[in-house]
């Protein structure tokens, strides 16, 4: 429990502060535009940074000058239903996760039989022998 508290404090102190500083610096230099699909923190002055909600940018709203001034973001509600909010760009702090915008390449690397393999539908890596055994069991059962 003590380790969890220390980790949370360090995360609040270092990571969230650096994200906020990077976001402020980038907004001044206008080098990083928020794009559709980006994951952002919703800045809220009345709550602590560690309690800011995560959201996904769904739509960008440009101003009369053509620059993005606001965005519509999707936030998970307490009962897991999505809520759509309109927020100004200054209150959206992008985290280090970018949308890939469909630019995912389909590459099939050469697999070493002893190395773990991650399947698309599962997050835990599996050995090739385990995958082969699972396929054999499925074929045997059908």
From TrEMBL:
What the entry lists under InterPro entries is as follows: DUF5641
Q: Which residues form the DUF5641 domain?
A: 9-88
* Superkingdom field: Eukaryota
Q: Which residues form a coiled coil?
A: none
Q: Which PANTHER family did the record assign?
A: GAG-LIKE PROTEIN (PTHR47331:SF1), PHD-TYPE DOMAIN-CONTAINING PROTEIN (PTHR47331)
Q: What is this protein called?
A: DUF5641 domain-containing protein
């Amino acid at each position: 429990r003590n380790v969890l508290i220390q980790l949370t404090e360090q995360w609040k102190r270092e990571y969230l502060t650096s994200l906020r500083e990077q976001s402020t610096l980038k907004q001044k230099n206008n080098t990083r535009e928020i794009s559709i699909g980006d994951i952002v923190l919703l800045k809220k002055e009345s709550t602590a940074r560690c309690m800011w909600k995560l959201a996904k940018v769904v739509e960008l709203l440009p101003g009369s000058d053509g620059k993005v001034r606001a965005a519509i973001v999707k936030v998970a509600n307490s009962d897991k239903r999505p809520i759509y909010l309109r927020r100004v760009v200054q209150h959206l702090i992008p985290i280090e996760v970018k949308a890939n915008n469909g630019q995912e390449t389909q590459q099939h690397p050469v697999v070493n039989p002893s190395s773990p393999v991650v399947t698309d539908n599962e997050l835990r890596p599996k050995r090739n022998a385990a995958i082969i055994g699972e396929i054999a069991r499925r074929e045997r059962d059908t």
